[in-house]
Amino acid sequence: MDFLDCRGKTCPEPVIQTKRIIEEGRPDELQVAVDNETSRENVRRFLESRGYRVEIERRDEGTFLLGRRSEEEKDLQGSEQKRAVVYINAETMGRGDDVLGAILMKSFFFALKELKPLPWKIIFINSGVKLPSEGSDCLSALHELESLGVEIMSCGTCLDFFHLKEKLRAGRVSNMFEIVSSLADAAQVLKP
């Protein structure tokens, strides 16, 4: 079993180091030690996205994540179908009138529900993080997409900038490394 000690490191360093060790040898078992909740959640999501089942054990000296690949996961390696990622970097769609842009964005999400297959992820950055937050006209469509299995991620730095982290109502907080990895892993990126 490979061991990676990421205690004392801030995000995204634990995820980047975990990625490197997986790329170097794709171990069947990997233990990663972290000492903060953000790193724990980011490393857990990353390992799961790479086909690992993750167990979390808390100890006095930190939190240890143990990732294991099953035989079935080993067989599936490389056979995952890449899907579309939707990239939203503004709260309105198009240039010109913001009222019209808000109407178009709301229509975009309602139309997106009809795509087959549905997008893999929707990523919100910059003022786009206002859309999955409290008071948005797009929340009902985003909740429906989420219930259909679409992963909704919002940039944590952007949520902090707009003071919206506590008002996020659809999806979850993400980080720039996960956003970049998702865009790189996508077969197609849709940007309204």
Mean pLDDT metric: 89
H and E string? EHEHEEHEHEHEHEHE
Please count the helical segments: 7
Helix content: 25-40%
- Taking all Cα atoms into account, the compactness measure Rg is 18 Å
CATH class of the largest domain: Alpha Beta
- Which word captures the global form? elongated
Low-confidence stretches: 74-80
List the domain count as a whole number. 2
Keywords:
192 residues; alpha/beta; Translation Initiation Factor IF3; Hypothetical Protein Ychn, Chain: A; 5-stranded parallel beta sheet; 4-stranded mixed beta sheet; 7 helices
Describe this structure in words.
This protein has two domains: 2-76, TusA-like domain (Translation Initiation Factor IF3); 84-190, DsrEFH-like (Hypothetical Protein Ychn, Chain: A, 3-Layer(aba) Sandwich). It has seven helices and nine strands; from the N terminus they run E-H-E-H-E-E-H-E-H-E-H-E-H-E-H-E. Helix 1 (13-25) packs parallel to helix 2. With 192 residues, the chain is of the alpha/beta class. The radius of gyration is 18 Å and the shape is elongated. It has a five-stranded parallel sheet, sandwiched between helices. Strands 1-2-4-3 form a four-stranded mixed sheet, with helices on one face.
